[in-house]
Amino acid sequence: MNDEFGALIPAFNEAGHIDRVIRGVAGQIPASNILVIDDGSSDNTVSEAQDTGVEVVRNPVNLGKGATLLKGFDLMARNTGIDAVFTLDADGQHDPVEMASFITAFRDRKADIVIGSRMADTKGMPALRRFTNRFTSAIISLRAGVRIEDTQSGYRLVRLSMMKQLHLVTRNFDLESEILIKAARLGAVIVSVPIATIYGEEKSKINPLVDTWRFLKLVFRSFLW
Ligand SMILES: Nc1nc2c(ncn2[C@@H]2O[C@H](COP(=O)(O)OP(=O)(O)OP(=O)(O)O)[C@@H](O)[C@H]2O)c(=O)[nH]1
Ligand SMILES: [Mg+2]
């Protein structure tokens, strides 16, 4: 069942959510293809993830979402049977049942990146997020040269052979934007699929000042690439 797909779940203090996310993903692809990377959590994220039986790797200290994703892609590439890797947030905002529509788009449209877009129905999204997602998506689309609906979405399916060609320099939330700019410029096929917008009582890890500054730095740097 979908053996050629893996799933990478970066997690930072997501006890209470991670277990349900992993079990959902294991309903769509083999559990042996799922990798959780804990990024120095101080809660029960690790034990909750380990109890599901999937592979859990731990960063000794918090390295950032981007650094964690890069480590995960490298580890995934050890399994030569895996062509493409899902990335899903561990906070419950991404419904694993929707993985099927990513797989359809990946196959039918020969995509290199399938990215879940929440922008068709933003009713459940906090107003500030609605604004920042629209704003950042417009800027990243300009820098990438193609229209991408929801560039800040962490729900993706990425072809590993394409990932290997990118030389990535950022290590935090900015990595997800950098991937899109660099992949688009290499001619990668980037396809958006609609996903549900899910917000609950989970706590955002985004630091408005630091992460906005990182985003702006990335945009400036992109003029040099
Ligand atoms: N590895 C790693 N993962 C992180 C870090 N910060 C957040 N994450 C994970 O990245 C995912 C997204 O983080 P969020 O803070 O929810 O960011 P977001 O979903 O883009 O933004 P919100 O709209 O505010 O929820 C979650 O699964 C987090 O556990 C980090 O420092 N390291
Ligand atoms: Mg979130």
When the domains are counted, the total is 1
What Rg, in angstroms, do the CA atoms define? 16 Å
Spatially, the strands of the biggest sheet line up as 3-2-1-4-6-5-7
Ligands bound to this protein structure: guanosine-5'-triphosphate, magnesium ion
Polypeptide structure, described:
The chain is an alpha/beta fold and 225 residues long. It is built from eight helices and seven strands, in the order βαβαβαβαβαβααβα. The chain has a seven-stranded mixed beta sheet, with helices on both faces. Helix 5 (127-144) runs parallel beside helix 7 and helix 7 packs parallel to helix 8 (208-222). The N and C termini lie far apart (40 Å). Bound molecules: guanosine-5'-triphosphate (GTP) and magnesium ion.
Summary tags:
binds guanosine-5'-triphosphate; globular; seven-stranded mixed sheet; alpha/beta; 225 residues; Spore Coat Polysaccharide Biosynthesis Protein SpsA, Chain A; binds magnesium ion; 8 helices
